């Protein structure tokens, strides 16, 4: 007989049918009620054991974490919390789980403990919900771009170029680590390395994505990127996933339209398709908040926060206007900001971004036209020669979630920018070629995928939204 | 006015409307006919220039590769090859393309030359078709798994484990390459490296995918994997993308069902959604074949080859049966095989796989139950203790395209296998935990994405189906 999933059975209208199911025991109480889960939904199905007619030896092996195979009759449930349950007629133990040693007991574990047991943590409600949402968000992203005529592009992970400038890089090598070959002048001879030159892990696929936008029109990347920075915070990973769309003939206004439509669409997708996991995580967040001091509690429920983004127009404000607002704001005047805003040119911190979104505008905000010297070399210089056509999208609770720009499409201006930053033209000859041959206005943005998953799930530590986090001193599993 | 795409205009039924379009000039002939492409389709739209009323200076700048902006009237075309064309009323040059230096001229370029200009090669019909198909195949894969209740999982790229055993690995490090810190005994002190231990790029996400299958039920990976092997062939990359589904409670038969259904579904998707690109590549292959010796020509057209997979049941044959067939085959007896099959235990080569598919069975073939000693440690041992529950799927033209297995779910058997291969248990403690706590039958397979793209596009060199190939001595762009 076909093995059903818990999800299928719980949404089953017809009862009094024979069913078969395989899954893992979450709890077993009163020698009678098994809560069984198979990952297909956050909900368990209740399996009622006829303990008087079941072998004692089998009953003892129905422990939390054990894999079992149940045959039985699907019936309407008398208990509360579920519509249907299974009256088990046969129970087979597929794999035992020793209750003395099994780490995932039916009690609250700390997130730190579960990180150390990351190979088992999706056996909890919290992590299974987070990872199902992560998967749903991934699909929503691919679906959005596919529906809108974008091509998915796999940009290279190993790069011979170190000109991207977005951060510290990891070296990729097969040289003898202890005795690398040396050149005559005594430096490491990377011409003998695997790729014939020094190679690193990519920090961004944008520059390569631009090459494809300038031929295929609309493209996006969705792949891993790396930062070798020694940041041990709840917001940084050494390995994380990024989404980077890039579109030819699109200016910064078009970029804002795209980003707003994209973010709303992706959030709408999970609001429609992942109600149960969201409801669980919303409740979890509310529960967590109770033990926090008032100031650290979330002002909105999880769903309200998603609705806040989906239902509001994003307010578009220039950096210059934003600085004025912040300079004259109460927290600035009363010195409540950790970093006070004194003058134009300051880099905004999360506290400022959140103030704009949560207190001042009360809607998602897109800041644009940032000072050139706090942004990357490839952003298009405005006529004022002081600002660039950059944009950051700010969300409640987290501040910046998306960063993008119109790219500098003028060969001479780009060369000047690179020269000023000592980026050698030979390193990016191919990037410059795009401005030599059929150049055009084009734009794009980057979204750190884990930041999005944190926003949607309400998890406070980025290590808890990726299966196996890589951070300084940690590459376990 | 809205900027239309070429794809939109070519499928437009209504004519005599004002339209606006931006794209790149493919050709400009007779000072009159611009073939314009914007990447949205392989087809160009013809724009007819009123050259008598157009500035001579502008006409001169309409060169291959130039980016232009055209306004005009969409009309029925008198010429053959297209239904509609644009009578241009305004032509703006957005970005020039110097015909003296632009590498991508309207003539046939060698694939080698285009590889050196990989940043511009999607401006050709061949590469734009290949990369659109690559994108469509990616989406088809995500859609298939999403539709079938699988969760997408991002397995780690940087791994601290070197026990996967699938191949040579790249080291990831931030240590000083020239003067690495040493331990007292004089070896490199990796505890001082970024991750506190030696770290490498992953060769497979399977082991981590198993951890999620054993909680979420059905999962898959789709991410980059790496091999530091010095293989300079048309079938090997140092960096490539893999798809690895993994399913709890599924045995090898279920694995075969899944793989067959999956491959058919993905190929059906592009047969339905990418007709024009496939038709172009089919024609290209036929053209290429003309200049090849008879023996190297394709026996089937591109579409026939895809239909061969979609329309036939995959024949399931044990390794032992296959060896018998091969041993008694004509090419073996007449010593036509490069590697003769003499006895049970031999590893099959592509020539043998293709013989089985193309000559003997005339349908895709799934071989199963391979000798244990030519397969990986994690495959489930059969009762005969000689073979494992492995499977390879063989396709026409390329041989093996999918490799999978039922995994060894028995703790003691797995430990013995690891001990025999000197894989330390401490390295894979978490993998062993899956067998300690709620173990169950589970299976999965791996598909090298670029092999699939080669199969679908008919491209003969794997360097031509990924945007920026990484191979020994090459990490350009």
TrEMBL record, chains A, B:
Chemical reaction(s) catalysed: tRNA(Asn) + L-asparagine + ATP = L-asparaginyl-tRNA(Asn) + AMP + diphosphate + H(+)
One cellular component term from this protein's GO annotations in UniProt: cytoplasm
Gene3D superfamilies the UniProt entry points to: Bira Bifunctional Protein, Domain 2 (3.30.930.10), Nucleic acid-binding proteins (2.40.50.140)
Record key words, sorted: Aminoacyl-tRNA synthetase, ATP-binding, Cytoplasm, Ligase, Nucleotide-binding, Protein biosynthesis
EC number, as in UniProt: 6.1.1.22
InterPro entries the record matches: Aa-tRNA-synt_II, aa-tRNA-synth_II, aa-tRNA-synth_II/BPL/LPL, Asn-tRNA-ligase, Asp/Asn-tRNA-synth_IIb, NA-bd_OB-fold, NA-bd_OB_tRNA
Record has Lipoprotein as a keyword: no
Pfam families assigned: tRNA-synt_2, tRNA_anti-codon
Cell compartments where the protein resides: Cytoplasm
GO terms for MF: asparagine-tRNA ligase activity; ATP binding; nucleic acid binding
PROSITE patterns assigned to the protein according to its UniProt record, in alphabetical order: AA_TRNA_LIGASE_II
Principal localisation: cytoplasm
GO biological process, one term: asparaginyl-tRNA aminoacylation
Domain of life: Bacteria
Domain Aminoacyl-transfer RNA synthetases class-II family profile: 131-467
Assembly description: Homodimer.
Family annotation (NCBIfam families): asnS, PRK03932.1
Family: Belongs to the class-II aminoacyl-tRNA synthetase family.
UniProt name for this protein: Asparagine--tRNA ligase
Provenance organism: Pontimicrobium aquaticum
Lineage of the species this protein comes from: Bacteria, Pseudomonadati, Bacteroidota, Flavobacteriia, Flavobacteriales
Gene this protein is translated from: asnS
